[in-house]
Fold this sequence. Notes:
Layout: H1 2-10, H2 15-22, H3 27-46, H4 56-68, H5 73-84, E1 88-89, E2 93-94, H6 99-111, H7 124-133, H8 142-157, H9 161-166, E3 172-174, E4 179-181
Amino acid sequence: xxxxxxxxxxxxxxxxxxxxxxxxxxxxxxxxxxxxxxxxxxxxxxxxxxxxxxxxxxxxxxxxxxxxxxxxxxxxxxxxxxxxxxxxxxxxxxxxxxxxxxxxxxxxxxxxxxxxxxxxxxxxxxxxxxxxxxxxxxxxxxxxxxxxxxxxxxxxxxxxxxxxxxxxxxxxxxxxxxxxxx
Length: 182
């Protein structure tokens, strides 16, 4: 993230300290922010603004331009966070925490709220009623027993499919009363 590096340099942070600070970002955050740093530099270049000495108004106008492209709350909020790591306002106030910026982001949320991850939910009772009819014993096939166990694990643990898929016998401790996965 060259822009962040330059920002640290401009604040008089040593190379050693800058390297340590740069390690504070996870790779996923770096990837997310990089998109907005590039857009920010492009925005500043078009307007002949030094991206490291931008004003509050420059940052808000950038977010406004992003909003005009149709992006939603999540993208605007990510861009705000990215700019917070390079724009320091007078009084050591970070861009993202300034009252006008938080108001702007709240306005974006009200205008284009984030959509819920799931549009529908299902009634767990319908699954439990079916599972209740599958009594243990000779009549229940190994396949049906496996389905029942998987559904009960999913319902009881609240885990995602990939977590359930990763369960295996080598990471399991079985006693008379418990079954523990490590």
